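User: I'm putting together a teaching handout on how sequence relates to shape, and I'd like one worked example. Could you take Sun protein from Salmonella enterica subsp. arizonae, show the sequence you're using, and then write out its predicted structure as tokens right after it?

Assistant: Happy to. First the sequence, then the structure tokens directly below it.
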Amino acid sequence: MKKQNNLRSLAAQAVEQVVEQGQSLSNVLLPLQQKVADKDKALLQELCFGVLRTLSQLEWLINKLMSRPMTGKQRTVHYLIMVGFYQLLYTRVPPHAALAETVEGAVSIKRPQLKGLINGVLRQFQRQQETLLNEFATSDARFLHPGWLVKRLQNAYPTQWQHIIEANNQRPPMWLRVNRTHHTRDGWLGLLEDAGMKGYPHPDYPDSVRLETPAPVHALPGLLRVG
């Protein structure tokens, strides 16, 4: 039976390795995904990619809610709190579950004495969320791009730079082509719905389907397996 690990602590460790050590997320994520159940791999991936995509916002929130940065061996907790923020802001994970699992992540990284700190910061964010997000919306961090890149885009595209940044911040869609040797497109969309997923047909390409939420290939229904 596959050992169960705390998903949030794994995501925090992955993000830390990417940000602090300059490692590739693809290389970091693969061995970590082997530590969780198949049903949880997509969420682990979502947390890692999501935190990195919104890193400047999450850093801004931590700076607002914590008087001192976490350093040294406690640095992983910094990223664990980011994972908590991301869940509360961008995922459908119920807030109580996001809080409980993130706080419990402190045990997995051998920092149980910091559970109270993590819980306090996340609950403070919940209480002040509207005020904080309104303030964030007027800050430079709202662009989710490093300052040097924003300035370069402003200089190069003075009338279009905001549109470029908005496009950069969009999550790329996941498109699939249905193999009509095995399924009709409508039939496969039905399998997708039965599996709790949702897809949308392309109006011009009869074999194409866009997933509402990207998912790992092994989780897709009706996949033809060879061997």
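A couple of points you could highlight for students: The two ends are 23 Å apart (CA to CA). The domain at 175-219 is CATH 3.30.70.1170 (Alpha-Beta Plaits).
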